[in-house]
Amino acid sequence: MSDYTILLELALILLFTKLFGIICKKIGLPQVVGFLIAGLLIGPCVLGWVNPSETLKIIAELGVILIMFSAGVETDLKELKQNGLAATLVAMAGVLLPLGGGFLIAAAFNGGFEGIDSLKVLQYVFVGVVMTATSVSITVETLKELGKLKTKAGTIILSAAIIDDVIGIILLSIIIGFRNPEVKPVEAVWKTGLFFVLAVAVGIGIHFLFKFLNKKFPHTRRLPILGLVICFLYAYCAEKFFGVADITGAYIAGIMLSGLKESDYIDRKIEINSYMIFAPVFFASIGINASFSGFNVNMVWFSLCFVLVAIAAKMLGCFGMAKLLRYDWKDSLVIGVGMIARGEVCLIVLQKGISAGLASSDYLAMGVLLVIVSSFLAPVLLKLIYRKSDPLPPISPDVTPLAPDILPVSVEGREKTQDIVQ
After folding, report:
1. Can you tell me whether residue 290 is helix, strand or coil?
2. Is residue 242 a contact partner of residue 192, using CB atoms and an 8 Å limit?
3. The pLDDT of residue 10
4. Is 78 exposed, middle or buried (0-12, 13-18, 19+ CB in 10 A)?
5. Among 82, 123, 121, 124, which Cα is nearest to 104's?
């Protein structure tokens, strides 16, 4: 590939991701779905205008690191503390069921347990890990629209989704460590544990350093630049010295800078780089790298079962735990449905696992399908639950009847009136 060809490819990626992102936003889907569709369209699967390359891979890797760093900075630790126990239990249930379900269907469609070795076990577990990630962004937008974000169910969903992703990233880091034949299982576990201990210990010092810098140099560009330095150093050290995924390092670095007075400013500056180029390239690259060459009847059925089990297991796990915690039927159902949406973290986990040799590129198409289906299903089901459980109050009989020549107010009009009153 000529050096300048990348310029044309970047132009096509940015144009089509923005176009399809706007279309998806208009119809109520997250923009990431549009990015994926754009990648499939301009990639080898359809038009073939953009092909996988080492340069695109590097830009996409930077994109995923920035996305995870930003997610860490946006983490609300106070919210986690307030709903800590309940959210943790819901998150764990929402991880264990998909993890087990993914393991079983991966075994069922890939030769079962006959002659199974350590690599196959890791590959089966990896399918379950892909299912564990929750993307709460579309659920948040739906709950905001319904005016239910600050309810008990809404706050549990927000907190549980964060914990859910942390658990998924830790599991990914452990199985990637096990994937290296030179690393022994016990060594992989203690190195992962050591990384988290050191990352948090050093991070506390960095947190106080940034507090000092906030006071001395408030609202200056040096703060987000230093934040990026910390992000890349954590990502590098995680991968280089501990065998932990670089995205885990970036995420922990973000958490260490969350809760600062200037956290929003740092996040805003980082996101400018992310949403302008790096994030669109990363998500488009998922579609560009997706391959249907290995698809056969077995793979089609596997994909359908993968999507079905991922959605059902997440919903049942979170719903069941919410009921055990004595939430009522409606809130439990909202929590279960609100946790089924998958998005960027699911795709990030999938991409990292494929890079580590835990799955083939055919699995990318499965991940794309899961993101699209769950992103559509979550808001539709949430709206149905609230529509049935919160019916409009009947018109009071003592209201003066309307004159015959005045049309009655429509149901939509009453809903808008109620919104205004509320």
Report:
1. coil
2. yes
3. 93
4. exposed
5. 124
